[in-house]
């Protein structure tokens, strides 16, 4: 009994469905998508890189302490006359066997142009990561919208196929009854049977695709639920279809809003800044340096008897680069090449954007035309089915003709749904290409 209860509860859990609108799907993805979470952390990481770069311009203060035990006293070398001997050089043992040393060091850069420019480059990197996040959000919004519309399409197709199956089952029952009465042909019964089995196969295939699409959509949203997704929106044309027919207007909008274009421009700016960083390495560096030191040496550990001589200084340190094996020159050439590469990529990206928008707008016009055609076809198929149904009821047509009219009507409605789906996906794709799609 317990095993049966667990089995039935598992099936009930699996059968649960979660109502979900497109707006809710996008909101869930903004919080749960793993790739987006990684990119947001990348933003934070680059903020820390900027802080690290800025730290090279701030004071560097360190405290150090050391203790050494000498088994033999330290030796210094003096002229023999200083040591009271006739040797040219005389070694002299000095110092205590216990040596203590503590000092506080200070270093404050006053002029370090390469680091200052490196900080500016790091700030540009922060902006690059923000643009990447926004661009990823746009791509994610398109993927979720397309997957959601696909789920809507397949659910609508499933509903139409199930309605068609019900009608064809009734037709099969009728043809069998007519065949049993000797008023129908065996081929009519066979054809109705084949139609029913084909529809059952199509329905099974659609159900499997709906399950797979639901899994893919849940992964994009970052959901780990076992419940199936039930889209609550409908395949209706709600947006303005005439606003983006002009290619020039689309190109102007995209040039201002495309995040990948902005990202590439920032990459060029970052490359130019890196070039200036390399040039700044030829400049001198000036720093304030200082130290406060306390020392003590003795043969014993009677700290109370120690004398603690102190040494302190404060000064300026100048560093002038003279020659480093042409390393800076090689880095300069690398930076110049990088800038040229990024400019070529920008040009290629702009050409790709132009071609993409032209293709989308062309497909958009064709999709609108197909929508009108399919709408007219559905109206004609509905009229044809109504007429054939009336003729069949009055004995003026065969069940086979009515079945053909029903199949034409179902296929016409499916084609119309496909046309609506294509238009909605193209609209979202156009919004993404214009840089207007947000998560």
Automatic annotation (TrEMBL):
Query: Where located?
Result: Cell outer membrane
Chief localization: membrane
Domain of life according to the entry: Bacteria
Q: Which family does it belong to?
A: Belongs to the outer membrane factor (OMF) (TC 1.B.17) family.
Protein name, UniProt field: Outer membrane protein TolC
Which InterPro entries is this protein grouped with? OMP_efflux, TolC-like
- Keywords assigned by UniProt? Cell outer membrane, Coiled coil, Membrane, Transmembrane, Transmembrane beta strand, Transport
MF terms from GO for this chain are:
efflux transmembrane transporter activity; porin activity
The UniProt entry, under Pfam families, shows: OEP
Q: Which positions are tagged coiled coil?
A: 332-359
Q: What GO cellular-component annotations does this UniProt entry give?
A: cell outer membrane; efflux pump complex
């Amino acid at each position: 009994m317990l095993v049966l209860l667990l089995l039935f509860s598992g099936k009930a859990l699996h059968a649960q469905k979660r109502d979900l609108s497109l707006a809710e799907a996008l909101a869930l993805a903004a919080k749960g998508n793993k790739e987006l979470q990684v990119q947001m952390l990348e933003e934070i990481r680059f903020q820390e890189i900027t802080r690290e770069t800025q730290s090279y311009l701030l004071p560097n203060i360190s405290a150090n302490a050391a203790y050494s035990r000498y088994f033999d006293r330290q030796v210094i070398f003096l002229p023999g006359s200083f040591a009271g001997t006739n040797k040219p050089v005389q070694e002299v043992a000095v110092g205590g066997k216990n040596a203590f040393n503590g000092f506080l060091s200070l270093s404050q850069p006053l002029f370090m142009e390469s680091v200052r420019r490196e900080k500016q480059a790091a700030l540009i990197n922060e902006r690059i990561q923000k643009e990447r996040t926004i661009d990823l959000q746009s791509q994610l919004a398109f993927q979720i919208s397309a997957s959601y519309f696909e789920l809507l399409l397949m659910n609508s197709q499933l509903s139409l196929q199930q309605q068609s199956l019900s009608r064809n089952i009734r037709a099969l029952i009728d043809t069998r009854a007519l065949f049993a009465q000797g008023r129908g042909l065996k081929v009519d019964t066979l054809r109705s049977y084949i139609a029913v089995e084909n529809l059952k196969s199509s329905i099974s295939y659609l159900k499997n695709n709906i399950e797979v699409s639901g899994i893919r959509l849940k992964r994009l949203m970052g959901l780990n639920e076992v419940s199936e997704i039930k889209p609550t929106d409908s395949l209706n044309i709600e947006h303005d279809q005439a606003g983006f027919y002009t290619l020039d207007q689309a190109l102007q909008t995209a040039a201002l809003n495309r995040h990948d274009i902005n990202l590439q421009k920032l990459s060029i700016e970052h490359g130019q800044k890196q070039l200036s960083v390399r040039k700044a390495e030829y400049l001198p560096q000036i720093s304030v340096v200082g130290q406060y030191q306390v020392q003590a040496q003795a043969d014993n550990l009677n700290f109370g008897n120690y004398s603690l001589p102190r040494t302190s200084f404060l000064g300026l340190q100048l560093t002038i680069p003279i020659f480093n094996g042409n390393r800076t020159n090689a880095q300069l050439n690398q930076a110049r090449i990088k800038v040229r590469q990024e400019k070529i990529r920008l040009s290629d990206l702009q050409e790709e954007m132009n071609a993409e928008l032209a293709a989308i707008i062309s497909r958009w016009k064709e999709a609108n035309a197909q929508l009108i055609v399919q709408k007219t076809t559905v109206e004609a198929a509905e009229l044809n089915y109504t007429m054939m149904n009336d003729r069949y009821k009055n004995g003026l047509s065969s069940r086979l003709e009515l079945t053909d009219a029903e199949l034409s009507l179902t296929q016409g409605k499916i084609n119309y749904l496909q046309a609506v789906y294509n238009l909605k996906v193209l609209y979202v794709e156009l919004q993404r290409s214009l840089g207007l799609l947000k998560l």
